[in-house]
Amino acid sequence: MIKLENVSKSFGDKVILDGISVQFERGKTNIIIGPSGSGKTVLLKSVVGLYDIDGGQIIYGDVVFSSLNIGEKREIRKQIGMLFQGGALFDSINVEENVMFPLDMFTEYSIEEKRDRVNFCLKRVKLENANSLFPSELSGGMKKRVAIARAISLNPKYLFCDEPNSGLDPKTSIVIDNLIKEITEEFDITTVVNTHDMNSVMEIGDKVIFIHHGEKAWEGTKDDILHTNHDDLNDFIFASPMSQRLRKFLGR
Amino acid sequence: MGILYHIGRYFLFLRKVFSKPEKHIMYYKQAIREIENLGINSIGIVAIISLFMGAVITIQTAYNTTSPFLPPYLIGLAARDSILLEFSSTMVALILAGKVGSSISSEIGMMRVTEQIDALEIMGINSASYLVLPKIIAAMLFNPLLTLISMGIGISGGWVVGEFTGIITTEQYLEGIRYAFVPYYITYSLIKTVVFAFVITSISAYNGYYVEGGAIEVGKSSTKAVVFSSVAILMFNLILTQLLLT
Ligand SMILES: Nc1ncnc2c1ncn2[C@@H]1O[C@H](COP(=O)(O)OP(=O)(O)OP(=O)(O)O)[C@@H](O)[C@H]1O
Ligand SMILES: [Mg+2]
User: Fold this and answer.
1) What's the gap in Å between A162 CA and the centre of ligand 1?
2) Global confidence as pTM
3) A173-180: average pLDDT
4) Which of A65, A28, A31 is nearest to A48 (CA)?
């Protein structure tokens, strides 16, 4: 479980996050939604400590992460897997070496054990026979899946995904979404996903947080969303012409 | 942003680079890889440039010493000393600043803008140390060898051109090469090389590591890497020469 208390972050005098308090539950897919530029990526990067926050606290379990020094943060980060918006695979090494990298760095496994683990993770993301390909030889969806495999190779306790299905076709998106949900439940991970894709929300959102103007504007489950009267959230959900007609039909 | 800001951040960066490695074997493997990348792959260009520069220095010295009072072996001596003292350390370092510096800076800069550095950090790895330390070590270990190669080939270049153009005979050239030879010049040159290797790799890595933006910024950072490391090389050349030769 991760708890944010009154977290704020500015760049210069531009306030991006303005006192956000929220709790990300363990074994659940916690989804952050919000319009483009609302600060989702900044929030995620602040939670993992890539950005230093200006105020508030970030708490992992019972450790106040935000007041640790960099060495102590690194210890916590060894339990974190993260999927970046662009995949962020190491492009000088192939798929197998990418997924094996955390194992090389932090375990004393033999090469066979590491290979087994890599193949298990790649199988988990339904990506067999790609071991020797380089990132430049992969499609966008394959890159995302390799990145997920790399993120779970060390059995993380926390998984962060920034726009896991941006740039993917609807079918692949669903595959990735379900994968994230399955992994979360199977290994009882605390998962946080950034998205602006309402399909993902309805598919896997155990807990949904809506960020607007740097504040947490709404929080609930995916089922609550269907019945909300929150104006900004409704504007966000029913943005497309088709869904606007749906909105009129629903009388909201 | 001011020069002081960069100097301060550069030293903080170095502190990050030189903090304790996570796992030595991984750094060792990286260093071996970098010796190939930065060192072995530079042998070709160093050899070609040294050959031609040795030849040109010999021709120019011959052209400028037509007086009958000057013994011809002086040509060999002058070629030897300029190669040992300046050329094989400083000139080669400037060329490597162009070749190796731009490649280090764009490689690390690209890793920055594609979030690969963030990915390393998220795994709990000290990205500055993991990416940069092996490069610094590889260059500091291997560049002295490049300098020695450059000295050998440069002096041979002078001999070849003397022999072919007939401006100086082989005996005269060899006499000049041996005349009043100061072995310390080689030591001096190698000390400079090691310092320059550090300067090139660390400054270029610094420029790449703090790139913000995209492909254009990566390009700019690699230009800056070359410019800053070249200027730093010239400055350290002055300082080291003053310290070591006077
Ligand atoms: N490093 C930075 N320096 C200054 N401003 C930044 C930085 N990173 C983000 N911002 C600003 O913070 C705001 C939020 O950006 P962020 O990337 O978090 O949006 P987002 O919600 O992830 O959007 P998207 O859905 O398009 O990915 C933007 O206005 C952006 O300009
Ligand atoms: Mg984003």
Assistant:
1) 12
2) 0.88
3) 87
4) A65
Nearest CA to ligand 1 atom 27: A36
Q: Is A42 helix (H, G, I), strand (E, B) or coil?
A: helix
What is the 3 state secondary structure string of A170-210? HHHHHHHHHHHHHHHHHHCCEEEEECCCHHHHHHHCCEEEE
* pLDDT (average), residues B183-210: 95
Give the mean pLDDT of B111-139: 94
State whether residue A60 sits within 8 Å of chain B by CB.
Answer: no
| pLDDT band of B76, cuts 50, 70, 90 | confident
Interface test with B, best of A44, A51, A73, A82 (most B CBs within 10 A): A82
Least confident of A170-174, A241-245, B214-218: A241-245
Rounded mean pLDDT, A189-198: 90
Distance (Å) from the alpha carbon of B200 to chain A's nearest alpha carbon: 22
Residue among A82, A85, A105 whose CB faces B26 most closely: A105
Is position B5 within any domain? Answer: no
Mutual angle of helices B3-17 and B127-165, in 10-degree steps: 100
Ligand 2 centroid, distance to B63 Cα (angstroms): 66
Domain ranges, residue B54 = 24-245
Written as six digits, the tokens of A154 are: 């060390």
Residue-level length of chain A: 252
Chain A: nearest CA to B31, how far in angstroms?
15
Q: B192-204, pLDDT tens digit by residue? A: 999 999 999 999 9
3-state DSSP helix/strand/coil percent for chain B, to nearest 5? 85, 0, 15
Is residue A3 within a helix (H) or strand (E), and if so which, with residue range? strand A2-11
On whether residue B14 sits in a domain, the answer given is no
Residue B118 to residue A85, Cβ atoms within 8 A: no
- The ipTM assigned to this model is 0.87
Residues B134-175: pLDDT tens digits?
999 999 999 999 999 999 999 999 899 888 888 888 888 888
* pLDDT tens figures, A3-13: 999 999 999 99
CA of B33: which chain A residue's CA is closest?
A92
Residue B173 is assigned to a structural domain of this protein: yes
* Number of compact structural domains in chain B: 1
- Return the C-alpha torsion angle B50, B56, B61, B62, nearest 10: 130
What amino acid is encoded at A147 in this protein? A
Would you say residue B52 lies in a domain? yes
**Domain boundaries A1-72+194-252, corresponding CATH code:** 3.40.50.300
